[in-house]
Structure prediction request, 172 residues.
Amino acid sequence: MRKAFVIVVALLGLATVSYSQKHAAAAAKPVDPVAGVHEAFDRLIEGIKQVNSDKVMGLYAKGNDLLVFNNNGTATKGWDNVNDATRQVYAKLSNVAIEITGLNIRMLGKTGAYVTCKWKQSQENEGKLETSSGRMTLVYQLVGTDWKIVHRHTSPDRPDATRPVFPSERQP
Prediction:
């Protein structure tokens, strides 16, 4: 009986050590602070490729303070307005391909981040092939447990020659 008691105590001791080591290893595993933002960005790109306005707009923060600086130099304010514009544009699009390069994600504390990148996109708009490229900045905010876009700024690589640019900023 005494021998059985000693064996049980030894097994419990080993189990406790094993359990403690597993939890210590899990606690020591570093958490990638940009992972959630990166996943949200990847879902955005996938929604664009699928021409799925519901997926894309689900990644934006709902509210009147959402602000989008569009590629054509205009601005759209408020989730409802951005949603309406996105639905109207996406209704005409098909065969969207987008390539992202130079992706950079920067955390701004625990609840904010921004993403910068270059993009090239081709698509059919009412059957006509279009291509464009440029730069994009997305500002993300942690809303509950989800990273949501609160601001987007896109600009073309080659702006229209009629758009005003300071002479000192013109490239040859």
Q: What stands out?
A: Helices lie at 2-28, 35-49, 53-57, 79-90.
